[in-house]
Amino acid sequence: MIIERLSREHRNIEMLLAVLERELEIFDRGGHPDYEVIRAIISYFELYPELYHHPQEELVFAKLKLRDPAAAARVGDLTLEHQKGTQRLRRVAQAIDSVLADREILRQNVDNIVRDFVESERRHIMIEDRDFFPAALRVLKPSDWTEIASASTNHEDPLFSEAAEETFDALRARILRMEQESEAERH
């Protein structure tokens, strides 16, 4: 089911946010976080949520607006929230690039930018899990789900292929493995 997959992706995103937060804590203590892990997480967020997860949510949301405008209004402007998330992610990438290029940037500013991204993503996920997904499950009809599924599984688009899924699964596994190795080296 589409909502189950989106929820599972939320759990994966939450794991990556936790890894990002752990790396930020190392940075805040004046240590050297694993920038390879951080960059891999940024790359993941630039690709998977932006190109697959959010468009699929927006297909579901469009149906929710038609079936229950009041429920959609409680969720808010999903497209705008996704755009704000993209902007926050760009700020994170720019801050990390500045650190790595030894440009003048206060540690506190880096901390604020990354924390803002992590906290905003968590709030966004919570609203979707609490309000959006249950409302969609409650009011969308089987024909809506069929239409959403057919619109989001175009086999011509390589982003929705099994190979793409395997690529993203491999990237997610690599990020988590790198974090575990980095954590083991620090102890």
From TrEMBL:
Origin: domain of life: Bacteria
Family matches, as PANTHER family: BLL2471 PROTEIN-RELATED, HEMERYTHRIN-LIKE DOMAIN-CONTAINING PROTEIN
Protein name: Hemerythrin domain-containing protein
Signal peptide: none
InterPro entries membership: Hemerythrin-like
Gene3D superfamilies: nmb1532 protein domain like
Pfam short name (any one): Hemerythrin
Transmembrane segments: none
Residues of the Hemerythrin-like domain: 2-136
Organism name: Bradyrhizobium barranii
Lineage, highest ranks first: Bacteria, Pseudomonadati, Pseudomonadota, Alphaproteobacteria, Hyphomicrobiales
